[in-house]
Amino acid sequence: MSANLAPVASVSPITDESPTTDGFNLVIDALKLNGIKTIYGLPGIPITDLTRKAQAQGLRVISFRHEQNAGNAAAIAGFMTGQPGVCLTVSAPGFLNGLTALANATTNCFPMILISGSSEREIVDLQQGDYEEMDQVAVAKSLCKAAFRVLNAEDIGVGIARAIRAAVSGRPGGVYLDLPAKLFSQAMDAAAGTASLIKVVDPAPRQIPAPDAVQRALDLLKGAKKPLILLGKGAAYARADADIRALVERSGIPYLPMSMAKGLLPDTHELSAAAARSYVLPEADVVLLIGARLNWLLSHGKGKTWGGKDHKAWGGQKFIQIDISPTEMDSNVRIDAPLVGDIGSCVAALLGGIDAQWPKPPAEWLNAVFDRRNKNVAKMGETLAKDPKPMNFHSALNVVRDIIKANPDAMLVNEGANALDFTRSIVDMYKPRKRLDVGTWGVMGIGMGFAVAAAIESGEPVIAIEGDSAFGFSGMEVETICRYNLPVCVVIMNNNGVYRGTDQNLSGGSDVAPTVFVKDARYEKMMEAFGGVGVYATTPAELRKGIEEAIRSRKPTLINAIIDETAGTESGRITSLNPAAAAKK
């Protein structure tokens, strides 16, 4: 050997006496080493044996009826725990089914890893027509934060470590990990295999904001006449609950929570401006965004929502934005005080600058906000006190409102159009990360996947409020809920169609209108078919009894809540995105 060449390290050779391991075991060992306890997925070629072996070695494997629902479960598990949720699918079609959830996780900043089996590279690259042949990494790249492929058993540890770090570091998101079929059977020396695994250290390191940026934000807040704090789901994900509450209370600034930030402070908190949203957004002069983006959910920071003269006009507000991604700043309007760093560190830094001499917001502003809020709360109370026959969204959700108040640890899953919008505005939340809904994309079909993961990860009862249309996207997972005997109560707001059940076929033909479903469908029979409890509820009293019994018994339950088929408006509150519906106004 030349004197100036270092010896090359080599993998210990496999001998007849050497204990060996393989790709199956290395994947499982790598996940367990990094604290992964649950896999959500759907078995099939080429990953069926992986699910069997994972279960045998102590991982909990929750098997679904459709990969998209398994992916949604993994994504929301990531939001709830701060650790990447793992979804396992078969190749090609199964992988494609999981992509919607992966893309949604990336859009919503939920840490998730989609692991899919795949065809062998040499066959895919030559397009020789393998079973479910597809270049899955190429397809996934544009829809997730990162995509990796592992070809050799000795690289499994690195692949999983990179996937975990990519999913949770910086702005969290979805990661794709491609494992070709023959990887699983690759054998190597057991000791070398163990040595190849990586336990990820500090996968989401803190990013401390610059002192001058903190001071700029404090100066802007201190000089505000009408300040507002706006909390997004990123604030809930950050788990900086105590500091966020202290920031609100010490500063005395009213706050407005986005839907998945509800409960960071109780919705009944004295500084909550949730019931005065349409007033505070256009009136505020300085807005502090914590874990919220000025996307379509906030009218892009401009337009009439913010006091602008038209949909493109800026209302004149000054914005302070906390975000871990510097490229998020100025994405729609000017950000006057960008605060780049992780939310926990940024909020702590702001809190450090708010001392006993901090000036409270002007009484004129506070009184105006709280007067508007109190009037709206009283008006809502009058509406909720009514008892129309048949039920409408308000009378039905008044029951849910009461039950969540009495059971603040229960998880609330929510999707639909009107079912989503009304629940957001009617049902108060009291604890953080208890409300899970469609998030940034507003994508339908998250309901049953989210409900399963919410029950698995929290151990608490789950109430899933579903529009009858939304439920159709994932309804078969009631079998999954029954199979694992999960404490999930599904409440379907049944008004016989999309938005409502009264549309007519304009051609005069015999087909029903595209938005109309089978009248008086008996959804509760689906849950009964798999051994769960079905309830047909036509009154608030029947609905209340059904939910309370579900929480008490912890049995899988589906309540078919029959509401007025004329209840609901087209597209809920986003009518403006449907040109024909908007034209009717």
Question: What's the CATH first level of the largest domain?
Answer: Alpha Beta
Helix/strand/pairing category: alpha/beta
- Averaging pLDDT over every residue, what do you get? 94
Q: From the coordinates shown, what is the CATH architecture of the largest domain?
A: 3-Layer(aba) Sandwich
What is the approximate shape?
A: globular
**Distance N terminus to C terminus?**
85 Å
Task: Give me the side-by-side strand order of the main sheet.
Answer: 3-2-4-5-7-6
The CATH homologous superfamily of the largest domain is called Thiamin diphosphate (ThDP)-binding fold, Pyr/PP domains
Number of strands: 19
Summarize the structure.
The chain has 585 residues and is of the alpha/beta class.
Provide structural commentary:
- The protein has 585 residues and is of the alpha/beta class.
- The chain has three domains: 20-196, Rossmann fold; 211-371, Rossmann fold; 386-584, Rossmann fold, CATH 3.40.50.970.
- It has a six-stranded parallel beta sheet with strand order 3-2-4-5-7-6, sandwiched between helices. Strands 15-14-16-17-19-18 form a six-stranded parallel beta sheet, sandwiched between helices.
- The longest helix has 22 residues, at 363-384.
- The chain is globular.
- Residues 1-12 have low confidence and may be disordered.
